[in-house]
Structures are given as structure tokens and as C-alpha cells.
């Protein structure tokens, strides 16, 4: 007990009560952090490894007190550890895949090795190429020719071509090489609602087609050109018959130049000129664009087919000099060599 103090002006015999609480314990010293150490063996995490992971342990002067369970901390470290690498096959980042954590657990996701399919070959590709080509022909070979002047049998689905890249490459060969394409003029009007005057479609669909398919033009084997003049009632902006001749049609001239550049494997080319005047050698712009096309066989068609009915027409209206020039220039010739490999001349293909 402390000694009794006297207050000034108070009686000397009145004692001052002691307010000290004798039952209160001594204050504890502040906790200090345990020194961190590097993680040891990967077989089992040590106490220092648990502390190094970021879970701080506290200790007093006499013994250490850990606020959380060490067993749970070890499970967290083991779940985050990557699988051990093998000597022959090292685990890479692409071989490890994260799994979503369990709902409500709050634990980090586990890493597992992604599984690979054992067999990636599709049953369709196990068939021989001959059988696959026969299947393609059922889809993309038309019974009649494909006429752009009367497009009635163009309803071929393209779903098979969009299956995969290999099927697209194989099926397009059947689509373009087995069909007979007839390029002609469409005698009907078209335009936008804001146009004051609609015009004849003409050879615009043909030009759009050859531009759109691009390199597939080299797969086409047979083409027939049915060239007609513009219709007066459908082309009021063309005032004279000379302006309405097909030899001045811009879409037709561009289409012929595109065929000369890309249609490099034509087997047969049919020509039919059905204009108001005969095509002559003096029509230089048209003749020059036409002579750029090459084919193994060039033929001037004597009749044409329209709307699925073969209608006899007049002979192709062209000069004899035009036919002779076309047959001499447009037919592709092969080089004839002797046994020593020397060039001895040329011969017609086919």
C-alpha cells in the first residue's frame, strides 16, 4: 500500500483511499514479427514457408502463438504448387489449365493438364477422293447449262462449301469445272427508287460474277458467249443503233479482259454474235479484247438455248476474217518437241 498523503487544510487523521486496482494484470509487450526465411523443400511446407507466403506469425517472449491453423495454410500452398516436371516431358504453360474454384470455398483454382482428342480424322475424309468428288457432283453439277441471261437454276446451296477449308477446295473444283457457263445479256430493267430512269441490266451480272469469284476462273472449263445488242425501249439514253451495239458495252469489254487474265484453263469456248450488224475486223476495240482469251477449242455456235428450249437462230453475225482470226489466235497450241527435247513446232491442243 502507498503511504497516505495529507492534503493541505484537511484533518490529519482522515486517510486518503487507494484507487489502485490490484486485480488488473500487467500490460503485455507488443507482438513482433518472426524473421522470414526462404521456402525449403517442396515436399512439405515448413513453418517458415508458411510465414514467407504472407501469413504472419506472432510470438511473445516465451512461446509463439499462431492465430490461424497451420494445416490449412499448408493445404493452400500445396494447391498452388505446379505439378512436378518430368525429365522426358517438361510441363509448359500450354499444358496447364485452370479450373474454376468451388463455390463458396474461396480457395485458389487447381491446375490440371488439358486432355487432347485421340483421333481427329473425320469419317468423311476417310473416303477415297473419287467418292468425295461424286458426292460433290450431286450437290454442284447442274443438269443444264448455267445461263446468266435467264438465271433459273442458280439455287445451289453453299453450306457444304462453308464446312471447312479442305471441303471448300475440293468442292469448288467440281462446281466450276463440271458446269457449262453461258454468259449473255439480261433484257430487263433495274435501278434504285431514287433513280429517275431505270436502265437495262445488260452484262453487269456477268461482269460482277467474274470479278467476284477471282482465281476460281481458272477452274472453269467451258464458257459460251451469247452477245446481243441493247434493247431500244430499255435503254432510252442510247439514241442510235451504233451506240446500242454490244461492241461498245463497257461491262462486256471489262468482262472479256478479265477472262483473258484469269480463265487460263478453258477447254472449250463458244461464240455467238447476234447484233444488228456483222462484227468486222475494223471493230478493233472489241476484237482486241476478245483475242486475249485462250482455249483448247473455239467454236462459233449456230444455235443458242434460251429458257430451257433450243430455238434455232440465225448464224452468228460476223465477218469471215473475224472467224479466221479468232480460230488462229484464240486456240491454245502446245509445243511439239523431238526426242532430244528440241522444239520442232506447235500443234493444236486436244
TrEMBL record:
It comes from the Eukaryota. Residues 1-52, 82-119 are annotated as: Disordered. InterPro entries: AN11006-like (IPR038883). PANTHER family: F-BOX DOMAIN-CONTAINING PROTEIN. This is Uncharacterized protein. It comes from Extremus antarcticus.
Amino acid at each position: 500500500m502507498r503511504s497516505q498523503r495529507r492534503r493541505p487544510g484537511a484533518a490529519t487523521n482522515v486517510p486518503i483511499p487507494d484507487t489502485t486496482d490490484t486485480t488488473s494484470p500487467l500490460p503485455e509487450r507488443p507482438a513482433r514479427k518472426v524473421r522470414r526465411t526462404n521456402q525449403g523443400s517442396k515436399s512439405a511446407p515448413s513453418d517458415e514457408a508458411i510465414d514467407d507466403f504472407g501469413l504472419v506469425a506472432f510470438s511473445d517472449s516465451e512461446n509463439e502463438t499462431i492465430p490461424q491453423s497451420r494445416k490449412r495454410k499448408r493445404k493452400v500452398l500445396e494447391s498452388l504448387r505446379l505439378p512436378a516436371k518430368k525429365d522426358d516431358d517438361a510441363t509448359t504453360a500450354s499444358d496447364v489449365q485452370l479450373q474454376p474454384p468451388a463455390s463458396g470455398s474461396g480457395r485458389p483454382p487447381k491446375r490440371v493438364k488439358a486432355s487432347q482428342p485421340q483421333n481427329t480424322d473425320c469419317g468423311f475424309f476417310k473416303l477415297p477422293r473419287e467418292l468425295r468428288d461424286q458426292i460433290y457432283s450431286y450437290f454442284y453439277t447442274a443438269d443444264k447449262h448455267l445461263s446468266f441471261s435467264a438465271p433459273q437454276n442458280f439455287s445451289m446451296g453453299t453450306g457444304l462449301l462453308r464446312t471447312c477449308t479442305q471441303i471448300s477446295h475440293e468442292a469448288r473444283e467440281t462446281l466450276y469445272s463440271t458446269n457449262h457457263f453461258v454468259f449473255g445479256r439480261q433484257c430487263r430493267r433495274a435501278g434504285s427508287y431514287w433513280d429517275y430512269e431505270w436502265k437495262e441490266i445488260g452484262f453487269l451480272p456477268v461482269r460482277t460474277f467474274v470479278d467476284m469469284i477471282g482465281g476460281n476462273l481458272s477452274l472453269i472449263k467451258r464458257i459460251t458467249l451469247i452477245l446481243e445488242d441493247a434493247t431500244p425501249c430499255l435503254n432510252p439514253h442510247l439514241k442510235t443503233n451504233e451506240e446500242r451495239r454490244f461492241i461498245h458495252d463497257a461491262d462486256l469489254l471489262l468482262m472479256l479482259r478479265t477472262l483473258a487474265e484469269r480463265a487460263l484453263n478453258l477447254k472449250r469456248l463458244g461464240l455467238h454474235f447476234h447484233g444488228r450488224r456483222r462484227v468486222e475486223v475494223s471493230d478493233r476495240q472489241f476484237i482486241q479484247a476478245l483475242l486475249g482469251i485462250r482455249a483448247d477449242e473455239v467454236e462459233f455456235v449456230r444455235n443458242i438455248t434460251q429458257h430451257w428450249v433450243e430455238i434455232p437462230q440465225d448464224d452468228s453475225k460476223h465477218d469471215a476474217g473475224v472467224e479466221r482470226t479468232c480460230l488462229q489466235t484464240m486456240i491454245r497450241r502446245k509445243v511439239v518437241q523431238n526426242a532430244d527435247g528440241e522444239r520442232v513446232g506447235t500443234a493444236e491442243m486436244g
